[in-house]
Amino acid sequence: MGFGGASAAKVEELIQAAHTITDAAVELVKTAVDLVKNQTDKLSGLAPSESSVIGNWQSGTATSLETGDDLVNIGVAATKYKLNSLQVGISALTAGAIITIRLYELVNGVENKVYPPQGTTWVVGTDPDAIWIVDGPVEITGVLRVEVQSDTVGDNTRAITYKYALEAM
């Protein structure tokens, strides 16, 4: 005798179909959870990067061919990132030295100086020990190069520190 007039075989077939649908739904939910996790993991950002570089900040020639030296390259070619912060530490340089920090990025295959505005400089001992160059999200595509220049010869072979935080996009 069947359930509601259905045979036992038909009831078993319906139960099996319900299990199949439930299993497929569970797999869809698992896939959706993995996709959400992948996106939210990006929100935590990559591990902060920090180091120091000794350079010829006054007498060197940076990659841009301007006076100074390269501090750091941030990012990877053909990859999009969100740069959340960039700090450049100038406290080890000579008190009173005038410091210029420049940023370069490729735009349509051409290198462009994207920072600073004309005339932007910092004075060691007067301005903060670390200059917060980026203090909010900025999209970079590819490599962002940071160069530093000092007007004081005594800053050659001194260390400048940096710290930055990136998120994958």
Commentary on this structure:
The protein contains 1 helix and 10 strands. Strands 1, 3, 7, 8 and 10 form a 5-stranded antiparallel beta sheet that branches. Strands 2, 4, 5, 6 and 9 form a 5-stranded antiparallel beta sheet that branches. The protein has 169 residues and is an alpha+beta fold. A hairpin with a 2-residue loop joins strand 4 (98-107) and strand 5. The chain folds into 2 domains: 1-44; 49-168, Jelly Rolls (Sandwich), CATH 2.60.120. The model has no long low-confidence stretch (mean pLDDT 89). 21% of the residues lie in helices and 40% in strands.
Offer a quick outline of the entry.
With 169 residues, this protein is of the alpha+beta class. The chain is built from 1 helix and 10 strands. The strands form 2 sheets. Strands 1, 3, 7, 8 and 10 form a 5-stranded antiparallel sheet that branches.
Count of β-strands: 10
What is the fold-level CATH name, i.e. the topology of the largest domain?
Jelly Rolls
What number is the mean pLDDT? 89
CATH structural architecture of the largest domain: Sandwich
Fraction of residues in H or I helices: 10-25%
Give the percentage of residues in beta strands.
Answer: 35-45%
Biggest pleated sheet: 5 strands, antiparallel
Backbone shape: rod-shaped
Structural class: alpha+beta
Radius of gyration (CA) equals 28 Å
Distance separating the two termini = 61 Å
> What pattern of helices and strands is seen along the backbone?
HEEEEEEEEEE
Q: Give the count of structural domains.
A: 2
Give unreliable regions as ranges. Answer: none
CATH secondary-structure class of the largest domain: Mainly Beta
DSSP helix count?
Answer: 1
